[in-house]
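Why does this matter for the project? Reviewers at the last site visit asked to see concrete outputs rather than summary tables. In response, this paragraph embeds two records directly. Each consists of the residue sequence and, immediately after it, the corresponding structure tokens. Nothing has been edited or filtered.
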Amino acid sequence: MAQLFFTQQLARFTSVPQVETDASSLRAGLDAAFAVNPRLRGYILDDQGALRANVTIFIDGRRCRDTQRLDDPLLPGSQVYVLQALSGG
């Protein structure tokens, strides 16, 4: 099963579950996480369903390719890290 991990920066705003899923695409994997915590969707995706500009996702050490469709494949042992950019000075 693929595993999705969310950085602790998101935990300031909502619960960030660690999710194991048999999803075969990134979007389906994210949907599994949103089923656990629906509020998480608004922090990860914009109102068009695309990845927010301040969020980056790595799948098995590689940045996701399409931030609009989120159709990158997930393998049974994939590790997905969802990171929110930090700002400030």
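We now turn to the second protein, recorded in exactly the same manner.
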Amino acid sequence: MIVKEEVKEIKKECTCTKIIQPVQDALYVLSGKWKLPIIISLSYGNKRFSEMGREIPKITDRMLSKELRELEMNQLVQRKVYDSVPVVVEYSLTEYGKTLNPAIEELYKWGLEHRKRLIEE
């Protein structure tokens, strides 16, 4: 996580484009309405497709499937197929996917404060 002192040092050394590019890369991977809710759902443990569909309000099966494929391509989610009858498919966060937890916690805190601020006005 970049701390304020590191950002100040980076700003001294280079243009803002060197800060913008990594942020844009992160937003590209996490873009859309559903990726973060899926990651949050999986941060509470491994889930089957239908479990996630029930936990995430208003997500369609088609969108859940699409987003899971993209998260898997970006190595944030792992899909495991069990050789059973019927076939069981389970999704989990990879170790790499778990590295998003601090960022999600900060977004959560910011979101709470933002909601309070808007309600107070």
